Amino acid sequence: MGANPVLGVFFHWLGGLASASFYVPYRGVRNWSWPVFWLVGGVFSWILAPWLFALVKTENLGAVLAAAPTRTLVLCYLFGALWGLGGLTFGLTLRYLGMSLGMAVALGLTAAFGTLIPPLVSGDLVGSLMRTRHGLVILGGVAVCLVGIAIVGWAGRLKEGDGIEQQAVAEFDFKRGILIAIFSGIMSSCFAYGLAAGEPIRQLTLAHGTDPLSQGLPVLVVVLSGGFTTNFLWCLYLIIRDGCFAEFTGGQGRTATAPPPLLRNYALCALAGIAWYLQFFFYTMGESQMGRFGFSSWTLHMASIIIFATLWGFMLKEWAGSSRRTRAILGLGIAVLVLSTGVIGFGNYMGTLAP
User: Fold this and answer.
1) Contact 133, 350 (CB under 8 A)
2) What does the alpha-carbon distance between residue 248 and residue 265 come to, in Å, rounded to a whole number?
3) What is the DSSP code (8-state) at residue 123?
4) Confidence (pTM)
């Protein structure tokens, strides 16, 4: 099956919707400490879902992973562990900035690093971008994306200056949130490197008869296991420090105010975890359709997440009480992000027509 950029963009938007929505179920969790619900959701998103989908959608998963070069497995796992640091601080970013602003700032840096560095590392930056018309269009789309992210960030800064009470984001702290978001955005870009390092695994699973749309799923198994390791160790430390073990079985931890509704919390965390995984599920499907310029998938993915996260932010009244000027600037930023996805998608389409 040949490349189909239009289908690829559609899958990336589905992934962006899943990613932007994953934190919403966590808002309904009651009387569980942050490391408890983050770890429970992580088991679903980083362990259970990747293995389940890969076993169902690919051929001979065990044989493929066993035949993969050791260096490939190590690099995928290592980049996944580094990405896990970004995932940890990403949760804190949303805690201090809210869904719309937090995702815009953190994912902006992730988009820039994740899109441009893989072709730079592979030595194909000049050949793919600088010397081709469609490559220059893609570069222009990346630049437009970063401008849109800057505008959204500006709106967030104005929101803080509007002097409104941050009811929807109880712990709103712009300065602290921005610093955490910068670290999160840079570390989260390692996910793109992990996917790029998994190319030998893709070739192996294709050789075993896996549908091209699902070729990235075995890579996700390895990369996400690295992310789980980082998150598990940190959450375990916090759980031990804060005495939260009892919360897993319905007890009241030292930091909880009442016993948790156990079934409700597990169900919500499972929903959040599966939604988190689905962003990568659709991402790998979209990337498989982008052809030679698959690295631009990262920017498309990040921009679509920001767009949907901003919509969630409005629905959850995170911008309630802000001035008309602030909301207008936010709308401008979202429009620029929509434009960027169109520019990058058109650049990829031009690439399929080039000789």
Assistant:
1) yes
2) 10
3) T
4) 0.76
The span from the CA of 289 to the CA of 224, in Å, is 22
Q: Crossing angle for the helix pair 199-207 and 70-97, nearest 10 degrees?
A: 120
- Residues 39, 45: Cα–Cα separation, whole Å: 10
Q: Alpha helix (H) ranges present in the chain?
A: 5-21, 34-43, 49-57, 61-67, 70-97, 99-122, 125, 133-161, 174-188, 190-197, 199-207, 217-242, 262-287, 297-315, 324-353
Q: What is the pLDDT of residues 14-26, one digit of tens each?
A: 998 998 898 889 9
The label of the residue with tokens 């975890």 reads 273
Question: CB 147: neighbour CB atoms within 10 A?
Answer: 16
Ramachandran region, residue 164 (left: φ > 0; alpha: ψ -120 to 50; beta: rest) = beta
The whole-angstrom separation of Cα 71 and Cα 89 is 28
User: Which residues 6+ apart lie within 8 Å of 232 measured at CB?
Assistant: 39, 42
The residue to which tokens 């309630």 are assigned: 320
Using alpha carbons only, what angle is made at residue 21 by residues 20 and 25, rounded to the nearest 5 degrees?
Answer: 140
CB-CB neighbours of 288 under 10 Å: 24
Return the structure tokens found at 164: 């409104």
| Band of pLDDT at residue 165, cut at 50, 70 and 90 | very low
Let me know how long the chain is: 355
Alpha carbons 319 and 288: distance in angstroms, whole number: 37
Q: Which two tokens stand for residue 66?
A: 């066993």
* Spatial distance between the Cα atoms of 232 and 234, rounded to a whole number of angstroms: 6
DSSP symbol at 24: T
Q: Flag whether pLDDT at 249 surpasses 60.
A: yes
CA distances 154 to 51, 100, 105, 164, 331, Å, are: 40, 12, 10, 16, 11
Distance, CA of 214 to CA of 204 (rounded, Å): 12
Q: What are phi and psi of 68, to 5 degrees?
A: -70, 140
Measured distance between the N- and C-terminal CA atoms of the chain, rounded to whole angstroms: 19
Sorting pLDDT into bands at 50, 70 and 90, what band is 196? confident
The tokens describing 346, both together, are 């058109």
